[in-house]
Amino acid sequence: MDSSAGRVQRRRDKLRAAGLRPVQIWVPDTRAPGFAQECARQAQLIRDTEAPADNDWFDVSDKTGWTA
Length: 68
Fold this sequence. Notes:
mainly alpha; flat
């Protein structure tokens, strides 16, 4: 029987051979004290901000290479 470390290494080798690489990212800890309150605060800021016209985002977005 193969060890789990060996299986993981083979899987990583296959992914690297496919042109991929591992990355590590840091994300907010949703379990942290105050996280829900901060989400609520930011949501309130968005609610209180005047909404742009429905297609304003489209006018300023980079559409290079995209077709409709």
